[in-house]
Amino acid sequence: MAEAYICAAVRTAGGRRGGKVADWHPVDLAAHALNAVVDRSGVDPAAIEDVIMGCVGMVGEQGLHIGRNAVLASKLPEHVPAVSIDRQCGSSQQAIQFAAQAVMSGTMDLVIAAGVESMTRVPMGSSGRFTRSFEPGSAKSPGLDKKYPDIAFTQFAGAEMIAQKHGFSREQLDEFSLESHRRAKAAIEAGAFDKEIVPLEIEGGMHTQDEGVRMDASMEALGGLKTLVEGGVITAGNASQICDGSSGVLVASAEAVKQHGLTPLARIHNLTVTAGDPVIMLEEPLYATDRALKRAGMKIDDIDLYEVNEAFAPVPMAWLKHVGADHAKLNVNGGAIALGHPLGASGTKLMATLVHALHARGKKWGLQTMCEGGGVANVTIIEAV
């Protein structure tokens, strides 16, 4: 089977809801990431064979095939096709895996996997809000309700369930969250994101720094936030931040690397996706990681760095506990609690961070995973080259 290589990995700096990135139309935001992938890699735009664009809220400004619209708004020529995909929070991580599968199968040589989400302009949950009469509706059908009666599929409930199941207190969640902010602050001050962030032109200058990081975060401030449900432990402080952003990676075959003079950053070693309990929902990365490591013939101690999306603090905390991983290797530059979680863009965003963090530290093996709506999880293992 052919090898698949990542030859560019970029992201925009995250924007808070209504913040510095709010004026960017999501199509142009996605096109900006596509252009940056082309510029960073030096590849001929006409040689790109497909674009796979992850996006969760595919309505309104993100509707009508945002992947194709992003290509048309970018420097890529019209003949480059695109597809828009939704695997919830893992949409653009799945885009990477689809791109890698195309390359590994020998059917394509150059594919851009990307993602975008403007959570300011297309609020979370927008795609499930209307029925045929344009009134509020539910994505839970009579058939689903028959199989899962009186159960609401919500990530907030799943996060509370994970915290309860694994015995995490509110204080433990806040401590984890504080560490995310501290690591993100340290990464910003050290310039750790400089190689992955592509500047965005905004009113008054350029946007180059993640807007959501609380540089003065404290346990006192986190402890003062109200829980999302009475008697619960999840707050806005120990959950991921609403975020606007885009990201992308170039996936290439060994032949394309030679033909186009590309510089590989990483080799894609393992692609795994699994599904489990749709109610607790966010716990699946634990079991997906077990399967990925087994299929790769590896142990968690073989992995140098891991990116586990911080949708809610209990998720990476439960992952650490279950897998027996080292917290020092987890989300070393902070995670979504500090940096933001732009839904459909997070998969390629985390990959950009992981690839560059491995190179910055002279490390070899990286693992990325994230929880996804409906109880699904992707795991991707890469080898820095």
From TrEMBL:
<feature type="active site" description="Proton acceptor">
    <location>
        <position position="341"/>
    </location>
</feature>
<dbReference type="Pfam" id="PF02803">
    <property type="entry name" value="Thiolase_C"/>
</dbReference>
<feature type="active site" description="Acyl-thioester intermediate">
    <location>
        <position position="89"/>
    </location>
</feature>
<comment type="similarity">
    <text>Belongs to the thiolase-like superfamily. Thiolase family.</text>
</comment>
<dbReference type="Pfam" id="PF00108">
    <property type="entry name" value="Thiolase_N"/>
</dbReference>
<dbReference type="InterPro" id="IPR020613">
    <property type="entry name" value="Thiolase_CS"/>
</dbReference>
<dbReference type="InterPro" id="IPR020617">
    <property type="entry name" value="Thiolase_C"/>
</dbReference>
<feature type="domain" description="Thiolase C-terminal">
    <location>
        <begin position="262"/>
        <end position="383"/>
    </location>
</feature>
<protein>
    <submittedName>
        <fullName>Acetyl-CoA C-acetyltransferase</fullName>
    </submittedName>
</protein>
<keyword id="KW-0808">Transferase</keyword>
<feature type="domain" description="Thiolase N-terminal">
    <location>
        <begin position="5"/>
        <end position="254"/>
    </location>
</feature>
<dbReference type="InterPro" id="IPR016039">
    <property type="entry name" value="Thiolase-like"/>
</dbReference>
<dbReference type="GO" id="GO:0003988">
    <property type="term" value="F:acetyl-CoA C-acyltransferase activity"/>
</dbReference>
<dbReference type="InterPro" id="IPR002155">
    <property type="entry name" value="Thiolase"/>
</dbReference>
<dbReference type="InterPro" id="IPR020616">
    <property type="entry name" value="Thiolase_N"/>
</dbReference>
<feature type="active site" description="Proton acceptor">
    <location>
        <position position="371"/>
    </location>
</feature>
<keyword id="KW-0012">Acyltransferase</keyword>
